[in-house]
């Protein structure tokens, strides 16, 4: 039985482990922190029984690799699936607008949805439909030097429609400001979401904590299949001999008993533990990262009915309704991430008063602020070029992670897909 050693117990490492175990490999995962999940996890507050995520993550029906992963670890019941896409947008003074895509008559259902999307003027709706039609027919083309903002403006998207609709979509999906985000990656992402099947745009939300939904079941799956998971053990160095990864030095031991080695850590972490000549052969890029901010508020009363709301033109992009508490979430949050707690709470309250007038008389009784300063890589033009040039393996060393060339932004789907890609590469890779 061939042995796989995986460095990193995030979703990329777990995904690779699951697929390789299914194909008869013995797998050991090394994780530097005391927990699995990487940048996707939940935890229990000290003074409550409440389980809270490190940041809200949405899945979509087009997340085929993630849904397959969830099915394999028997975790489907831990998610709520929309039957068809429906998003409630909130503008100032509590005005609400529903974007509702019918479940029938795909792909004409998108036409119906935007015709009836009253957040936008008639001319704005027409401009969006023309843009989608151009994507569908291939008339919308991008250059590798074009930003999303440049693309949208060149195809008749006004300042108003960008502010009311596209800004939220782009920043939330790519965690990158619209003026920096890669148009090439954006176009491919939109095609997958809206044109890869009738359920592809439907939103999927965990009904429990992220660890409970995505991590603990995977951990149990791996252990029940004979895999080994070691936490609180940091890899210090990877040594090579005769062109192969031959030894892994950790904070506790030396490991030489492996046939294949998978790195499922960030590019910055990997650059610290492999020799310069291997970095050059793999073209490992140094990438920039962007933040996500979550302001979680416990309310004296919560009259909100929907599970989530898109916020039009606000300082936050989304409000997620957990019943017991609400979460205001902002992607690409570098303008707020360094603010102190009091200022952030004050900003959150101001936004609630402006957009959710139904909460005017509601008191904030507790709060928890979560700052993920390096939540995902910036999906800008430069990073896409770097990702395309990198190699996924050097002999018996393979590279996984949402930052590798998956053709996706840094999402859960990108992480899981990368693990699957690497497992398939190993299955077809003869040892030298």
Provide structural commentary:
By secondary structure, this protein is an alpha+beta fold. It has three domains: 3-61 and 209-286 and 380-427, 3-Layer(bba) Sandwich (FAD/NAD(P)-binding domain); 108-197, no CATH class; 289-377, Polyamine Oxidase, Chain A, domain 2. The protein has 13 helices and 21 strands. The strands form five sheets. It has a seven-stranded mixed sheet with strand order 8-7-16-17-18-15-19. A six-stranded mixed sheet has the order 10-2-1-14-21-20, sandwiched between helices. Strands 5-9-6 form a three-stranded antiparallel sheet, with no helix packed on it. α1 (11-22) packs parallel to α13 (412-427) and α2 (64-72) crosses α13. The model has no long low-confidence stretch (mean pLDDT 94).
Question: What's this model, at a glance?
Answer:
With 432 residues, the protein is an alpha+beta fold. Helix content is 34%, strand content 24%.
Taking all Cα atoms into account, the compactness measure Rg is 22 Å
**CATH level-4 homologous superfamily of the largest domain:** FAD/NAD(P)-binding domain
| CATH class division of the largest domain | Alpha Beta
Estimated share of beta-strand residues? 15-25%
Strand order of the largest sheet: 8-7-16-17-18-15-19
Unreliable residue stretches: none
Q: What is the residue-mean pLDDT, rounded to a whole number?
A: 94
CATH fold-level label of the largest domain: FAD/NAD(P)-binding domain
Shape: globular
């Amino acid at each position: 039985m061939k042995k796989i050693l995986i460095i990193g117990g995030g979703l990329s490492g777990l995904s690779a482990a699951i697929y390789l175990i299914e194909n008869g490999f013995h797998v050991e995962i090394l994780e530097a922190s005391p927990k699995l999940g990487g940048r996707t996890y939940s935890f229990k507050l000290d003074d409550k029984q409440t389980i809270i995520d490190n940041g809200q993550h949405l899945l979509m029906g087009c997340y085929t690799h993630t849904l397959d992963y969830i099915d394999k670890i028997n975790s489907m019941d831990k998610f709520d699936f929309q039957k068809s896409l429906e998003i409630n947008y909130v503008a100032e003074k509590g005005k609400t607008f529903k974007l509702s895509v019918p479940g029938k008559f795909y792909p004409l259902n998108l036409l119906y949805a935007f015709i009836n999307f009253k957040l936008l003027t008639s001319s704005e709706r027409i401009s969006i439909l023309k843009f989608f039609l151009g994507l569908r027919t291939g008339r919308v083309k991008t250059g590798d030097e074009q930003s999303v903002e440049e693309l949208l403006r060149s195809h008749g998207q006004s300042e108003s429609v960008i502010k009311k609709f596209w800004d939220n979509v782009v920043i939330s999906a790519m965690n990158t400001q619209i003026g920096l985000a890669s148009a090439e990656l954006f176009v491919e992402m939109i095609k997958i979401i809206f044109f890869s099947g009738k359920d592809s745009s439907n939103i999927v939300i965990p009904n429990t904590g992220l660890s409970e939904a995505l991590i603990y079941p995977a951990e149990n799956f791996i252990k029940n299949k004979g895999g080994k998971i070691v936490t609180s053990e940091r890899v210090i160095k990877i040594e090579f001999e005769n062109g192969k990864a031959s030894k892994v030095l950790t904070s506790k031991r030396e490991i030489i008993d492996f046939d294949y080695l998978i790195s499922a850590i960030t590019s910055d972490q990997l650059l610290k533990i492999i020799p310069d000549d291997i970095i050059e052969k793999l073209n490992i890029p140094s990438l920039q990262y962007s933040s996500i901010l979550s302001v979680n508020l416990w309310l004296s009363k919560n009259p909100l009915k929907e599970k989530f709301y898109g916020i039009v033109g606000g300082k936050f992009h989304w409000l997620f309704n957990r019943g017991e508490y609400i979460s205001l979430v902002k992607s690409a949050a570098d303008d707020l991430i360094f603010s102190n707690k009091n200022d952030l709470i004050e900003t959150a309250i101001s936004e609630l008063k402006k957009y959710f007038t139904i909460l005017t008389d509601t008191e904030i009784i507790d709060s928890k602020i979560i700052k993920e300063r390096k939540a995902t890589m910036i999906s800008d033009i430069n990073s896409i070029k770097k990702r395309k040039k990198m190699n996924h393996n050097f002999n018996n060393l393979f590279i996984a992670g949402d930052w590798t060339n998956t053709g996706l932004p840094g999402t859960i789907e990108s992480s899981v897909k990368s693990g699957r890609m690497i497992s398939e590469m190993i299955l077809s890779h003869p040892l030298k």
